[in-house]
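hey
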């Protein structure tokens, strides 16, 4: 049983994943990052390759035909370099912008964007020679070696077939017009590069699920760790019990403070007690200001007797109010008639004690609907 508890068989909780993310531990695929850079480079060549070829042709045309006086003129040399930079600025700037965007997308598409100071901080464990040797000859190093060999063979085979396919077209460049040939050569290079990059999609398709699985596996938890985390999140049973006890004590204190304002206490007579208050000015139904059973019911009766609050025994009504109404709520409509008779009895009894009227009597069977009756 102890061995089972120590095995990391449980999936990581959301808190475990969040804590790992704060430390910079997220699923990353180097192959996806490489693919993003290479794919963006190929797309960049196709987008601005023609403009780059024209710019290069213009630079060669102007700079391969300079005179002797220009070569030995320092100001002229600076002007030439300035012209070169101005000519290449737009196509090269566009190309590098595409590459940077591809690098960002490729490195964040798996795991999302995340920056962690904890992950960037130096760690002594990474400087340990022994742990370095374990990383060099461990399972992860073997997997990286296999991926490297796989990429090499896939790219090499793809490059061989691409060159064989486009070899006649490449030979024709030697007999074409220079400016058009340069443009066609750059566009062909971009097209072949794009196809070559697509050849490593197979490696990426295998690496991405593996990296996610490996990351999830490294964060797996033991059963005891899950229990401890849940206990820390929810609080220990002892602390929760004390909090619940304090809450009940506070609620009981508030409830007992409201009993003196009650108009009547309806009892079972011993097991249940509910305190009702009625304010005609609010035009609302009577409300329950306190209720309880057994010991709490006894305490309600004790406070009611000390405060001279009338106590009326009606077992059926006491149970009906107790089970159908919460403290602070109005009684349900089905109990209006029964409670009205009890309140009328209480008010008439007050008048009787003052010497007004005859002694009232409360009906033994109050009108309580079947759906509100409780045994």
């Amino acid at each position: 049983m102890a061995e089972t508890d120590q095995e990391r068989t449980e999936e990581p909780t959301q808190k475990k994943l969040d804590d790992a993310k704060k430390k910079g531990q997220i699923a990353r695929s180097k192959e996806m990052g490489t693919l993003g850079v290479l794919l963006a480079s190929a797309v960049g060549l196709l987008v601005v390759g023609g403009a780059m070829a024209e710019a290069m042709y213009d630079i060669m045309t102007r700079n391969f035909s300079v005179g002797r006086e220009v070569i030995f003129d320092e100001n002229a040399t600076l002007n030439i370099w300035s012209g070169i930079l101005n000519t290449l600025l737009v196509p090269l700037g566009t190309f590098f912008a595409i590459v940077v965007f591809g690098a960002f997308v490729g490195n964040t598409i798996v795991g999302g964007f995340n920056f962690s100071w904890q992950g960037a901080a130096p760690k002594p464990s990474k400087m340990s020679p022994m742990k370095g040797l374990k990383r060099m000859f461990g399972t992860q190093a073997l997997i990286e070696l296999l991926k490297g060999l796989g990429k090499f063979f896939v790219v090499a085979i793809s490059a061989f077939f691409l060159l064989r396919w486009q070899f006649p077209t490449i030979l024709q460049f030697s007999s074409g017009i220079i400016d058009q040939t340069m443009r066609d050569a750059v566009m062909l290079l971009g097209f072949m590069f794009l196809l070559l990059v697509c050849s490593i999609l197979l490696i990426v398709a295998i690496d991405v699920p593996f990296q996610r699985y490996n990351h999830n596996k490294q964060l797996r938890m033991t059963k005891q760790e899950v229990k401890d985390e849940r206990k820390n999140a929810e609080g220990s049973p002892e602390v929760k019990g004390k909090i619940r006890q304090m809450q009940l004590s506070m609620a009981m204190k508030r409830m007992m403070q409201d009993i003196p304002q009650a108009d009547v206490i309806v009892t079972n007579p011993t097991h249940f007690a509910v305190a009702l208050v009625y304010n005609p000015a609010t035009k609302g139904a009577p409300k329950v200001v306190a209720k309880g059973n057994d010991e709490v019911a006894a305490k309600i009766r004790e406070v009611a007797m000390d405060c001279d609050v009338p106590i009326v025994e009606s077992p059926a009504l006491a149970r009906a109010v107790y089970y159908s109404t919460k403290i602070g709520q109005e009684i349900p409509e089905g109990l209006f008639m029964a409670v009205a008779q009890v309140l009328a009895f209480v008010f008439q009894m007050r008048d009787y004690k003052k010497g007004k009227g005859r002694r009232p009597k409360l009906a033994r069977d109050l009108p309580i609907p079947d759906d509100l009756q409780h045994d």
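Residues 288 and 328 are 5 Å apart (CA to CA). The longest strand covers residues 287-293.
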